[in-house]
Every structure is written in structure tokens, then in C-alpha cells.
Amino acid sequence: MNEYVPILALGAVAVAFAVFSSFVSSLAGPSRFNRAKLEAYECGIQPTPQPVGGGRFPVKYYLTAMLFIIFGIEILFLYPWAVHFDNLGLFGLAAMALFVFNVSVAYAYEWRRGGLSWD
User: In b/e form, how buried is each residue of 51-80, taking b as 16+ CB within 10 angstroms?
Assistant: First the structure.
């Protein structure tokens, strides 16, 4: 149990800092609300009205999200593999080659669908 005390102490300090910062900012910061502050911010462009049920998102939005997921999962698995590469041997190398092949298939699909063109 003594091994977890520093982790719990750091977690308690983080929570205390978050609560303290939120409390102080609500007291010290200005709270003047107007119509412009309550509107949605779209990079300086006037917001366009949306239909009642919400609007349709373009496919480009989902392709960008898929790209972030692909690279996030790749880093999530490649980093621990690189740390313990010596202990895994040939089995680890084959498993990672299969994983990189699967990620490459998703990446090729993304590229083919136009998710990497910034037009």
C-alpha cells in the first residue's frame, strides 16, 4: 500500500488545484454576459442557422476523426512494444508487423477517400 501513497497524494493535489482554480476564476474574473458572448464561436465567421434536428456533417469531418483514431491507436501500441522489444523476440516482431499492416490498410483507405487532402 505504501507504493500507492505518492500516486494518491499527487491525485489529491491535482483535484485540489482544479477545484481551487475554478473557484478563484469565478470570483476574480468578470461575469458580464452579452449576446455576442452567448453565441457559438466559429472562428470569426457569423454562425449559420442549423436545422432543428441538427445539420449533416460532411464526410471530411469523419475522415479527419478517423485519421486521429488511426494514429492514436498506432502510438498506443507501438510505444510499449518499442520499450519491451528485446523481451518479445520474434513473436513480438511478427505481431507488430501484422499490426502495422492492419494500420496501413486503414491509412490507405483514408488516403484513397481523400482524407489527407486539405482543400
Answer: eeeeeeeeeeeebeebbeebeeebeeeeee
Query: For the segment 73-83, what is each residue's pLDDT rounded down to a tens digit?
Result: 888 888 888 88
Output the nine-digit C-alpha cell for 55.
445539420
Is 0.85 surpassed by the pTM of this model? Answer: no
CA distance 74 to 100: 8
Q: How far apart are CA 37 and CA 30, in angstroms?
A: 12
List, as one string, the DSSP characters of 68-112: HHHHHHHHHHHHHHHHTHHHHHHHHHHHHHHHHHHHHHHHHHHHH
**Amino acid letter for position 49:** P
Q: What is the pLDDT of residues 38-73, one digit of tens each?
A: 777 666 666 667 677 766 767 777 888 888 888 888
Output the furthest CA–CA distance in the chain (Å, rounded): 64
Helices 85-112 and 59-83, packing angle to 10 deg: 170
